[in-house]
Write a structure and sequence with these properties.
The structure is a homodimer of 336-residue chains.
Chain A lengths: L2 E4 L4 E6 L6 H12 L18 E6 L2 H6 L14 H5 L8 H13 L10 E7 L5 E6 L5 H13 L5 E5 L16 E8 L8 H22 L7 E12 L12 E3 L16 E5 L4 E3 L7 E3 L13 E11 L1 E4 L2 H16 L1
Parallel strand pairs in A: 1-14, 2-3, 2-4, 4-7, 5-6, 6-8
Antiparallel strand pairs in A: 5-7, 8-13, 9-10, 10-11, 12-13
Helix pairs in contact in A: 1-6, 5-6
Chain lengths: 336, 336
C-alpha cells in the first residue's frame, strides 16, 4: 500500500457555539479558554518541537447569549464562497457579518492562509452517538483522526458522515479550514447540557489534538479501511397541504434507530391520528439525523445514507524538505 | 369513610401550546380541533345526558408559530390575580395580553363563571414520565383523575406533584379553572415531537375525559390513598460569580433519576473541569425537573419534593337537588 506524506498541521481551530443552543461545545470551548496551559496543550511544553497553535473560538456569541440556534439566519449555512464573497446591501443578517469575521480569523476559505484544521462542535437531538461530518471521503487527515477516536473511545458509537458537496458550495464553518469536520454528538436536547455528552466531547477533542501532535512529530499511521456514510437524500415530515403543519411524527420503531438500515416498507411515520406510513424507497439505506429539532424548519425529518468501505492509505507528516517544496507549489498555484 | 358529593363538571378545557415549543400538546389540541364529533366526545351522542362541553385551546399561537417557549414573557406565569387584574401601562408584553384573553375565555379565575376543569398540556426535557401538577393536595377531582390515569396506563411512570401556593398567587393557566392541573410528560426535547410521548398524552387526555363522563353520570369513586410529591425547594446550577454562566452540569448519577430519593452527600453536579459536587441537604428528598431546559434561565437545575401519602375520600357527583343548593350557596358567596 502506498504511503502519503502530508503537510504539518500547525494551526488547529476548535469552535463551539456555532449554534448558540448546542451547549456541549459552548461550555467546552469556554473551559478550554480558561485553561491557558493545561492538559489540552501539553505539547507546547515540549521545547524541542514547534508548538501547535490551538485557536479556541466561540462562533456565535449573540445566539449563545439568547440560547438560540441563531439570531437572524443559520450561521452554519453562511460559509459558501458566494455568501462569503458576494456583495451585501440593505440590512445584512448578523450571521452573515459574523461568517465574514470568522472567515477572516480562520480562513480565508480555500487559501493558503487558512488554518490547517477546523473542528466545529455540535449537538443533535438525534440518537447519533459521536459523528464526524465532512465534505470529503478522501481527506486522509479527517479519516485517520476518525479512526483514532474510534480506537480511543470504544464505548461510544462513532460514525463518519460524508456530505458530497464541492468546496465552493460547502456551507459550514469547518469548510473554512484546509481540513475540517463537525464533531456532532447526541442525543441531547438543545438548550440542555448533559454531563455524559460533555465528557464525550471533551475526550473527543483531546484525542483529536493528541493525534495532531503525534502526526506532527512524525508518527506513521497505518492504512486501513473505514466505513463511510454518504448522505443520499432527506425525507420531510408529512404536512398539511394548506397550513404546512406536520401531521405525523417519526414512527416509534424508527425513532432513535439512527444508522440502523431502513428497508422498503419499514414504518417511517405515525400520523397524529394513529396511522402508520411506510418507507417507499426501493433500496435499504441508513437513516440519520432522525427527528433532529433544528431540521423541522428545514423540512428534514431524517436523512438517508449509503454505507461504503473506504480504504485509507498509510500517512505521515512531510519532512522539512518535502514541506518546503509543497509550500512553493501552493504559492505558485495561488498566483495563477 | 365519609363520602364527598361534588358539583357536576360541565365544562372542561384542554389546552396546548401554552409553551409554544412543547409540541405534544400543540399537535394533540390541533388534532382534537379537527375531530368535531369523534372518539374524544362520544358522550355528546348519548342524548339522555347533558352534553359535556370540551373547549380545545391553543394558548400561545405566536410562540407556537416561532416554536419558542414564549415571545415576551412566560405565559404560564401570568395568571396570578395581580397580573390578571393589575393596571397596565406602556408596552404590555404579548403574553400578558394573552393571559387576559384566556382568563376571559376560561375564567374569570376564582369566579363561578370559570370552567370546571382545566387540563393544560406540557412537555419537559426531564425524565419525569407523566405528572399531574396542581396547587392542591386536597382537590379530590384532580386526585381521583390521577388515580384513574394510573390504573388505565400502568406502563407509564406517573406522579402527582403539589406546588403549595395559594389560589391568588397561583400563576399558571390551569389555576383559572375551578379545578385544574398541568399534564406534564417527558423526556422530550422542546421543539421535537416524539410519537410515544404524543400517544401517551393522547391516552391521558382521553382517560381524563372518560373519567369526567363517568363522574357526571353518577359513578361512585372509592376512597383510597395516593402518593403526593410536595415541592420543597429549587436548586440552581453552580455559576461563575462574574459571568453567571453555569460551571457544572447535573451529575451523570443524578441525570434522568427524577423521583429517585436524593440522599445527603449523593453526587449532584459535575463541574466542566471534572469535579463532583455533592448534595448538602440534611434529609433525603425526591428530585424532579432534573435538567429541564426552560429552567436554566429561571435558575433551577432541579426541584426537590417531600413524598406524602394522602387519603382521598369516596366521591360522587351531586344530585340535582344538591347541585341547586350548591349553586345558590355560591351565588350568595359571590354577592358578599
Amino acid at each position: 500500500m502506498q504511503m502519503v506524506c502530508l503537510p504539518r498541521l500547525s494551526r488547529v481551530a476548535v469552535c463551539g457555539g456555532t449554534h448558540g443552543n448546542e451547549l456541549s461545545g459552548v461550555y467546552l470551548v469556554r473551559e478550554l479558554l480558561k485553561v491557558k496551559k493545561g492538559v489540552m496543550e501539553k505539547e507546547e511544553e515540549q521545547e524541542e518541537e514547534e508548538p501547535l497553535s490551538v485557536l479556541k473560538v466561540l462562533s456565535n456569541p449573540r445566539a449563545m447569549q439568547q440560547c438560540r440556534r441563531y439570531v437572524d439566519t443559520d450561521l452554519n449555512r453562511c460559509f459558501t464562497h458566494a455568501t462569503l464573497n458576494g456583495l451585501t446591501s440593505g440590512t445584512v443578517p448578523y450571521e452573515m457579518i459574523r461568517s465574514r469575521e470568522l472567515n477572516a480569523m480562520l480562513g480565508p476559505k480555500g487559501r493558503s492562509g487558512a488554518v490547517d484544521l477546523v473542528c466545529d462542535l455540535h449537538n443533535t437531538t438525534a440518537n447519533m452517538g459521536l459523528c464526524l461530518i465532512a465534505y470529503s471521503d478522501c481527506d486522509w487527515i479527517c479519516l485517520h483522526i476518525f479512526r483514532h477516536l474510534q480506537r480511543k473511545m470504544p464505548d461510544i458509537p462513532m460514525r463518519y458522515i460524508h456530505f458530497e458537496v464541492s468546496n465552493k458550495e460547502s456551507y459550514s464553518l469547518d469548510s473554512v479550514g484546509k481540513h475540517g469536520f463537525a464533531m456532532e454528538i447526541g442525543p441531547q436536547p438543545h438548550g440542555v447540557a448533559r454531563s455524559t455528552v460533555y465528557t464525550a466531547m471533551k475526550a473527543g477533542v483531546q484525542h483529536m489534538l493528541d493525534w495532531v501532535c503525534f502526526f506532527n512529530s512524525g508518527t506513521l499511521f497505518e492504512g486501513e479501511s473505514v466505513d463511510v456514510f454518504t448522505m443520499i437524500k432527506h425525507i420531510d415530515y408529512p404536512r398539511d397541504s394548506e397550513t404546512r403543519n406536520i401531521t405525523a411524527a417519526v414512527h416509534p420503531h424508527l425513532q432513535d434507530r439512527d444508522f440502523c438500515p431502513l428497508h422498503p416498507e419499514d414504518p417511517l411515520f405515525q400520523t397524529f391520528s394513529g396511522e402508520t406510513l411506510r418507507y417507499k424507497g426501493n433500496e435499504p439505506l441508513y437513516p440519520f439525523f432522525i427527528n433532529e429539532c433544528a431540521y423541522y424548519e428545514k423540512g428534514i425529518a431524517l436523512s438517508l445514507a449509503r454505507k461504503r468501505r473506504v480504504v485509507i492509505p498509510t500517512i505521515r507528516v512531510q519532512t522539512e524538505q518535502e514541506q518546503a517544496a509543497h509550500v512553493q507549489e501552493l504559492a505558485s498555484e495561488e498566483e495563477e
